[in-house]
Amino acid sequence: MKIKFFGHAAFLIEGEGKRIITDPYKPNAYNSLKYKPISSPADIVTISHDHEDHNYYQGIKGNPVVIKEEGEKRIDGIKIKGISTFHDRKRGKERGKNIIFVFEIEGIRVAHLGDLGTEIEESVRKEMGSIDILLLPVGGYFTIDAEEAKRVSSLLRPKVIIPMHYKTSLCDFPIAPVDDFLLGEKNCRIFSGSQVEIKREDLKEGEIWVLNPEGG
């Protein structure tokens, strides 16, 4: 399986002969997101919520299946589960709902938390099940912040965390940089590239992988 980070909350997850893109951003979304347009085609696109920095499936080539609701699906051998959560700390009253997606590909379970805005309830944790790789928002303001993200990761106990949705030179949202989340963490791997190739046996407990956005 391969995972590529485009930037913000957009990833390409490739396995089982299929290509999944999560939360594709609209170029120059809200006049604040300067990552390059996503050029990779996809078979499947998942949308955690309907904001333009996460929902621009129209820009994705390949005539993909678009999933933006909760529930379970199986597409050509890939299991996908959408779980309803909230984009804020007031049960959706400020920013609405958020969908967590859990993918099972080549025996590896990957969870994309979207714009999760509140800590995870026990019922959601049980519905998610065991997680190998957690794509975790850490920047705060619109999502959980660094400390909340650490508590969420402690609850879910993934083997590997890949941070997302944080401030960079190409993201001018009022959110924190990834360094806030990395503070005090020891098992961090900083990648110069945007992509990793993963086998289940390569996953080590408690690692944080920081990918360099391809769209940067």
Biggest sheet details:
8 strands, mixed
| CATH topology (fold) name | Metallo-beta-lactamase, Chain A
Rg over alpha carbons: 15 Å
Helical fraction equals 10-25%
H/E element sequence: EEEEEEEEEHEHEHEEE
- Report the total helices: 3
Number of domains: 1
Count of DSSP E strands?
A: 14
GO molecular function: hydrolase activity
Keywords: Hydrolase
Organism: candidate division WOR-3 bacterium
Protein name: MBL fold metallo-hydrolase
Write the layout of secondary structure elements.
Elements lengths: L1 E6 L2 E6 L2 E5 L21 E3 L18 E3 L3 E5 L2 E9 L10 E9 L2 E5 L9 H7 L4 E5 L8 H11 L3 E5 L13 H5 L5 E3 L4 E3 L9 E4 L6
Parallel strand pairs: 3-4, 4-5, 9-10, 10-11, 11-14, 12-14
Antiparallel strand pairs: 1-2, 1-13, 2-3, 6-7, 7-8, 8-9
GO molecular function, one term: hydrolase activity
Pfam families: Lactamase_B_3
Keywords: Hydrolase
